[in-house]
Amino acid sequence: MSLAVMPLMMLILFLLVRYPFALAVLALFLPMEAPGVGAAIAGSFGILVPLIYAGYFLAVFKTLHTLWIRRNTSIVSRRVFQIALLAAGASGWIALSMFSSDASKIETIYTSLGAIPGVIFALAYYNNRSARIVLVSAVAVHLIVGCGIIVFPHSPLSFLRQPTSAGAALPDVWRMETTGYKDSAQFESAAQLAFYAAVGLIVGISLLLYHRGTLIRVLGTCLAGLGIAATFFTLERGVWIGIFVGLIALIAPLKRKPAGKLVYAVILSTLALGVLAVCTSADNFVLVALRDHFLAVRQDGYRIPVAMRSMDILIAKPLFGVGGQILDLIDLAGGAPHQSFYFYAVTYGIPTGVCVAAMTWLSLVTNFAKRRPPHGSGLTQYDRLLGRTLGLVVVAMALTNGMSGGMLGWAFLGFACLPWAHSLPAGRPVASNCPASAYSRT
């Protein structure tokens, strides 16, 4: 073992004891989240990868145990623990499914740890300022690296790019000739980069609109700019729909103020002009490609047949699905279903799909039930607004793309469930809620 690794091992041990959430953020740079970056880290510090995952698992178990102890102290604590149990059930069943198919043990650990840690991270540290900073920083770093690889495909960053097919030239974002530009950069799927883009855009604009500090507003502007760039590079329809609906919900509290009216006008006018340009253009190849992409003239004819063939697989293998063997699913069904809960059910079994569907529903339910969080719950009006907005983005992705998994997606799925956890059931007294500090120093 190299002596240079010893300080890093000591740092990981310190993080495990003092700041468990930091280990969750470190996992955002390991292979299961961004394989390009993860491969570079594993190549340089291979011995640290299993160590980080071990610490990651222990930190999650410690936090879950804390939520178990507090489950009966309030309605909020009970609901938070219920969401954590759904995530734990999904992770556990994913592991069982992959073990049943004789999948690689390392791959099983990577995949099964993609669910519960992200959800628990959001549930336990939603009002911890340090946790928020490191999580947003991780989002920003991924967006910077992703956009950097796309815009400068021949720069030194290109070694982080996911391998392309043999003989394929690196795409050039400024020389689109036949179709709209779409790239996954260091990710396995463009949907993952698109989800980072949506989160960065929504969080950045929320910082710009609802915080007064100049530095925070500047950082919000930069984050939103990175999100806009990455969203353009991926051209994911579900994300664009989620962003549009989410922005409308995010600006709703400002609709009577000049700033809100101005932002509404900009969004609606931009959308109207964009739709008009895309629908009427016949000469601009980019706009024509966008029209074909959104109308799914050529790209999406396979989705309904894939969904039907996937149902046959689900009936034949209801407990464990195809055991995480994505290539087998593609060979059998001709593709993968594009709804997250359906995808997880076919891939890992019906129990996993039910858990994912339940969390997806909880992330959306308070967008319909307009209940305010009780006084002293620890969930501020800004938190509730951001949670509801991110919930709309999460649901848009869940309904349109089943390959958008990853620890970050699960983290914001957990955060989007917080408004439900902090909304009082009908007939319950306000006094039954937990204090604001209940989870801030878990």
Strand content: under 5%
What is the β-strand count? Answer: 0
Structural class: mainly alpha
Which geometry do the CA atoms define?
globular
List low-pLDDT spans.
176-180, 429-442
H/E series = HHHHHHHHHHHHHHHHHHH
Classify the helix fraction into a percent range.
55-70%
**Largest sheet descriptor:** none
> What is the residue-mean pLDDT, rounded to a whole number?
76
Calculate the terminal CA-CA distance, rounded to whole Å.
Answer: 33 Å
Radius of gyration: 22 Å
Count of helical regions = 19
Short synopsis of the structure:
The protein is mostly helical. It is built from 19 helices and no strands.
Structure description:
This protein is mainly α. It is 67% helix and 0% strand. The chain has helices at 5-18, 20-27, 35-44, 48-69, 75-100, 105-112, 116-124, 129-151, 190-210, 214-234, 237-251, 258-280, 285-295, 303-316, 326-333, 340-348, 350-368, 381-400, 407-421. Helix 2 packs across helix 4 and helix 9 packs antiparallel against helix 18. It is globular. The two termini are 33 Å apart. Mean pLDDT is 76; it is low at 176-180 and 429-442.
